[in-house]
Amino acid sequence: MKRIFTTAALMILILALAAPLMAQPGPAGNRPRHRANREFNLGRALNDQNLRTRLNITDEQVAKLKAAFLEAAKAGIKEHADLKIKRLELASLMSGDKVDHAQVNQKITEISALQASLLKNRIATQLAVKETLTADQLSKLKMWRQAQAHRFMQERMQQRMGMMPRMGQPGQGPRGPRGPQASPAPAAPPKPGDDGQ
Length: 197
Prior knowledge:
- The protein is mostly helical.
- The chain has one domain.
- It contains six helices and two strands; from the N terminus they run ααααααββ.
- The protein has helices spanning 2-22, 38-45, 49-55, 59-95, 101-132, 135-163, and strands at residues 172-173, 176-177.
- It has a two-stranded antiparallel ribbon.
- α1 packs antiparallel against α4 (59-95), α2 runs antiparallel to α4 (59-95) and α4 (59-95) runs antiparallel to α5 (101-132).
- The radius of gyration is 28 Å and the shape is flat.
């Protein structure tokens, strides 16, 4: 019984670790947005002169933030790739008939270290934003982010509503009309002497 419980627990661990690897891109090949990407999104938004004017961000601040975002993006790409490799290696270790507990524990330690490094990288980027912008700019930035999030949610709702059947139309389902359909009107009988020529 203990062995069955241990095997089940290990399978759950493998599935939990492998889930991010199996995640598929969203519609049109876009990956879903995550809160971890918001600093990078801000880095791209800094190219928008209207936003920079609205937040009253100086060219010097823009340069400093862009440098911080670039370094964070480069480190993040490498760490995410390393994390995927370590998860694959762990899955491979777990798939054998005889599992080496020491190797599994070592791989878990390596995965945990990479996850911690990713978190530190994200926090360092957030701190760079806080240290570069003034309190007023941070307040305006927070309002801008909330507006962006609200707009994103509205777009998602509109997409979902477009996929749902229209309410109040009888016989309409998600795959189109349902229920008994009216048979097409019979073709008019040919007129005498009309042989189709």
